Amino acid sequence: MTRTQDLHALIGQEVGVSRWFEIGQDRIDAFADCTEDHQFIHVDAEAARATPFGGTIAHGFLTLSLASAMSYDAVAPLDGLTMGVNYGFDRLRFLAPVPAGSRVRGRFRLLDATDKGEGRWLLKHELTIEIEGADKPALVGEWLGMQIVSAAS
Fold first, then answer.
1. 54 in helix, strand or coil?
2. What is the C-alpha separation between 87 and 61, in angstroms, rounded?
């Protein structure tokens, strides 16, 4: 747990790293089915081998969709947290493809913490999703989350 009075001291620091998540073809196929995005670079291994990727790759939004689970792993909740709400991204860039069969994890650095009153804290984290063994991360973004804490915190 993180106390709200300690947030400003954490600004600029890495606050957590998630576990590794496997990006298997079965996960990619399931995401394609959920989102109705069946572009061949994601689901057709034979056709994808003929591309510069050399095989199928995860959807960028699949990689991004793991951010919540990564955050639960890596970022300590605020004391008295009653709920958190995804507030969006200020910046988001997909930097490298995630090949099927690879693993990714999230790194979180607190960029800002703003007391919005009435127990609401707007937190901005730099999220970097790295690919195991790769030089470039899959994505980097500035993620906003509204954290609601009970008045007693």
1. coil
2. 17
User: What number of H helices and E strands is found in the chain?
Assistant: 6, 6
CA distance 10 to 148: 18
Confidence (pLDDT) at 152: 59
Q: Give how far the C-alpha of residue 150 lies from the chain's centroid of Cα atoms, to the nearest Å.
A: 26
Q: Are 105 and 133 in contact (CB under 8 A)?
A: no
Residue 153 has pLDDT above 60, yes or no: no
Q: What share of the chain in percent tops pLDDT 90?
A: 97
The per-residue pLDDT for 138 is 98
3-state DSSP assignment of residue 39: coil
Tokens of 128: 């970097």
Instruction: Report percent pLDDT > 70 for the chain.
Output: 99
Evaluate whether 2 touches 110 at the Cβ level (below 8 Å).
no
Is the pLDDT score of 151 beyond 60?
yes
Give the DSSP letter string of 90-133. EEEEE-S--BTTEEEEEEEEEEEEEEEETTEEEEEEEEEEEETT
- Taking the C-alpha atoms of residue 67 and residue 121, their distance in angstroms, rounded to an integer, is 19
